C-alpha cells in the first residue's frame, strides 16, 4: 500500500505543473492564433485506477482558500463542518482579484488548498484540468464509501463531472433550465410553449415576439437580463469542444442552427454597456411591471418567495424548462469542486466535500454556492419549507417564516420539473465563452459572414485545445 501511495504522490506533484501551464494559457486565450492545420491536439493523461477510500491520507488538518468576497460564507460552512469533524481547518483569505492566480502559483510549488472551489475559478478550464489529472480521482472512493449513494442526488449531475468515466470533479449545486413567466403576459404577446420544441425554435419565437412585447412602455427585454448568449449556449447542449476526443465543433450543423437562431434574437438581447449576465434572486417586481417576460430562478429562497408574492397579487405564473437542441432540457453544474491531486490532507478534503453534499449544508440557505441544491431530499424540503412574506422596496423581501411559500402540490410539481432534467453540462470557463462570443460577434452584427467567423473560431478553438 505504501508503494502505491508513493507512486500516486509522485504522479500528482508532476501533474500540478501541467495545471499551472494550462491555467496560465487560459488567461491568455485568444491572444494568439495558429491555424487549425498546424495545431497539435492534446494528449491527455492516461486514465488509471484512482485511489480507494483507504488510500486517502488521514491527518488532523485541512487547508482552504477563500476570497475576500466569500470569506463570511466559507467561514460559516467551516464552522458547521467543525461541529461534526475534529479537524484543524486553516482558512487563507486572498483578495478576490488575486484569488485564482494565487491558487495556481501555490499549487505549482506543492502547496495550495486541499479543496479547490472551482466555481470561484472562472478563468480555469475545468475540463482541461480534469483530463490532465490535476484533480484527485474519486471514482473508487465513492464506490467504496458505504455512506454515499449517487441516487440520492439529481440525475445527471455527477455524470456531468466525469471524464472518461472517472469522477475528478464533484457537483454541489445546479441550475436547471427553468424559466418563470406570467400567463397573462405570454398570452398577451402570443407566446405558446406548444410551438417550441427546441432551443433554436425558442430563440426564433423570442425574436418574432420581441417587437410586440415592446409595445408595452415598461418592457425592457424578454428576460430579466440582457446578454443571455452564454447561458443559452450552455443549456443548448451543443458541444463546441469535445475534450475527451480532442475535437472542436463536433456538431457544426447544430452549432450553426443555434447561432443563426440567436442572431435573430441578438438585436433584442445585446447590450455592449453591460456585457455580463447577472442573477436576480427575486423577480415578482419586474414580472408584474412588465419589464420582462421570463425570469431564470436560481436562488433557493428567492424562487419560492417570488411565486408566493405573485400568488398573493392574484397573478397566475407558469414554470417551464427551456428545451435544448433536441428537445430535452439541459442543466448546468454551477457548484463544482475538486480535491487537489497533491493534497496532503486528502481524507479531510473528501470529508469536507461530503459534508457540503450532506442534508445539513444542502438545506442551508447559505450552504450551496449560487444555485439550487442537488440532494433530492434536501431540495424538496427546501421547496416545502421556504417562507412566504411580503415584497420590499426595490424588489426585496420581508420573509414570514410562519407561512410556507408553496403548497405541497406546487413543491412537488416543481420538483418533478427539476428531476425531469437528466442531462447536465459543466459550467463554461470565462476564456472559453469569451472566445466563442467575441469571435462570432461580427456575424451577429452582420459585419462579417458566418463562414469567415467560423473559420476564425475553429482556428482559435484548436489552438486553445492544443495547449
Structure description:
The chain is of the alpha+beta class. It folds into two domains: 2-175 and 334-373, Periplasmic binding protein-like II (D-Maltodextrin-Binding Protein, domain 2, 3-Layer(aba) Sandwich); 178-331 and 426-466, D-Maltodextrin-Binding Protein, domain 2 (3-Layer(aba) Sandwich). 41% of the residues lie in helices and 15% in strands. The protein has helices spanning 2-27, 71-82, 99-108, 126-131, 139-144, 183-189, 199-213, 229-236, 252-269, 284-288, 302-312, 346-356, 359-362, 376-385, 408-419, 430-444, 450-466; strands at 61-67, 88-94, 115-116, 162-163, 166-167, 170-171, 173-175, 178-182, 241-242, 247-248, 317-321, 330-333, 336-339, 372-373, 387-392, 396-404, 423-426. The strands form seven sheets. Strands 14-7-12-17 form a four-stranded mixed sheet. A three-stranded antiparallel sheet has the order 3-13-6. Strand 9 (241-242) and strand 10 (247-248) form a beta hairpin. Helix 7 (199-213) packs parallel to helix 9 and helix 16 (430-444) packs antiparallel against helix 17 (450-466). The protein starts with a helix and ends with a helix. The model is unreliable at 1-40 (pLDDT under 50).
How would you concisely characterize the structure shown here?
The chain is α+β, with helices and mostly antiparallel strands and 467 residues long.
Apparent shape: globular
Task: From the alpha carbons, calculate the radius of gyration and give it in angstroms.
Answer: 23 Å
User: Mean of the pLDDT scores?
Assistant: 90
Report, as a whole number of angstroms, the end-to-end distance. 35 Å
Q: What kind of sheet is the major sheet?
A: 4 strands, mixed
In CATH's first tier, which class of the largest domain applies? Alpha Beta
Strand content: 5-15%
Task: Look at the helices and sheets and give the structural class.
Answer: alpha+beta
Number of helices: 17
CATH topology of the largest domain: D-Maltodextrin-Binding Protein, domain 2
Fraction of residues in H or I helices: 40-55%
- The unreliable regions are 1-40
Provide the CATH superfamily of the largest domain: Periplasmic binding protein-like II
Strands side by side in the biggest sheet: 14-7-12-17
**Which CATH-level-2 architecture of the largest domain?**
3-Layer(aba) Sandwich
What is the number of strand segments? 17
Structural domain count: 2
Amino acid at each position: 500500500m505504501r508503494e502505491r501511495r508513493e507512486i500516486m504522490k509522485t504522479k500528482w506533484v508532476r501533474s500540478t505543473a501541467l495545471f499551472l501551464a494550462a491555467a496560465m494559457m487560459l488567461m491568455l486565450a485568444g491572444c494568439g492564433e495558429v491555424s487549425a492545420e498546424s495545431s497539435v491536439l492534446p494528449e491527455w493523461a492516461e486514465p488509471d485506477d484512482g485511489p480507494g477510500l483507504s488510500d486517502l491520507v488521514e491527518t488532523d488538518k485541512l487547508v482552504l482558500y477563500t476570497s475576500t468576497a466569500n470569506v463570511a460564507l466559507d467561514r460559516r460552512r467551516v464552522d458547521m463542518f467543525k461541529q461534526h469533524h475534529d479537524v484543524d481547518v486553516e482558512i487563507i483569505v486572498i483578495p478576490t482579484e488575486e484569488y485564482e492566480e494565487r491558487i495556481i502559483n501555490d499549487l505549482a510549488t506543492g502547496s495550495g488548498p486541499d479543496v479547490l472551489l472551482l466555481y470561484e475559478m472562472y478563468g480555469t478550464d475545468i475540463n482541461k484540468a480534469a483530463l490532465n489529472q490535476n484533480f484527485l480521482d474519486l471514482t473508487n472512493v465513492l464506490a467504496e464509501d458505504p455512506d454515499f449513494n449517487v441516487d440520492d442526488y439529481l440525475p445527471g449531475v455527477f455524470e456531468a463531472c466525469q471524464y472518461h468515466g472517472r469522477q475528478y470533479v464533484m457537483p454541489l449545486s445546479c441550475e436547471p433550465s427553468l424559466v418563470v413567466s406570467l400567463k397573462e403576459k405570454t398570452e398577451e404577446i402570443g407566446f405558446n410553449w406548444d410551438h417550441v420544441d427546441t432551443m433554436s425554435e425558442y430563440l426564433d419565437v423570442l425574436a418574432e415576439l420581441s417587437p410586440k412585447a415592446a409595445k408595452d412602455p415598461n418592457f425592457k427585454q424578454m428576460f430579466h437580463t440582457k446578454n443571455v448568449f452564454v447561458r443559452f449556449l450552455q443549456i443548448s447542449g451543443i458541444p463546441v469542444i469535445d475534450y475527451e476526443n480532442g475535437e472542436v465543433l463536433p456538431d457544426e450543423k447544430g452549432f450553426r442552427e443555434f447561432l443563426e437562431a440567436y442572431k435573430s434574437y441578438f438585436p433584442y438581447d445585446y447590450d455592449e454597456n453591460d456585457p455580463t449576465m447577472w442573477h436576480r434572486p427575486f423577480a415578482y417586481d419586474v414580472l408584474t411591471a412588465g419589464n420582462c417576460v421570463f425570469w431564470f430562478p436560481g436562488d433557493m429562497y428567492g424562487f419560492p418567495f417570488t411565486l408566493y408574492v405573485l400568488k398573493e397579487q392574484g397573478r397566475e405564473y407558469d414554470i417551464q424548462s427551456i428545451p435544448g437542441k433536441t428537445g430535452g432540457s439541459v442543466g448546468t453544474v454551477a457548484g463544482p469542486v475538486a480535491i487537489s491531486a497533491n493534497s496532503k490532507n486528502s481524507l479531510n478534503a473528501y470529508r469536507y466535500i461530503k459534508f457540503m453534499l450532506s442534508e445539513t449544508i444542502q438545506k442551508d440557505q447559505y450552504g450551496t454556492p449560487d444555485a439550487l441544491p442537488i440532494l433530492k431530499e434536501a431540495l424538496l424540503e427546501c421547496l416545502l419549507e421556504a417562507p412566504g412574506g411580503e415584497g420590499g422596496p426595490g424588489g426585496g423581501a420581508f420573509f414570514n417564516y410562519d407561512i410556507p411559500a408553496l403548497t405541497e402540490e406546487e413543491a412537488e410539481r416543481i420538483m418533478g420539473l427539476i428531476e425531469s432534467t437528466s442531462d447536465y453540462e459543466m459550467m463554461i470557463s470565462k476564456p472559453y465563452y469569451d472566445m466563442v462570443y467575441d469571435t462570432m460577434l461580427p456575424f451577429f452584427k452582420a459585419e462579417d459572414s458566418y463562414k469567415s467567423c467560423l473559420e476564425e473560431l475553429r482556428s482559435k478553438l484548436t489552438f486553445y485545445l492544443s495547449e
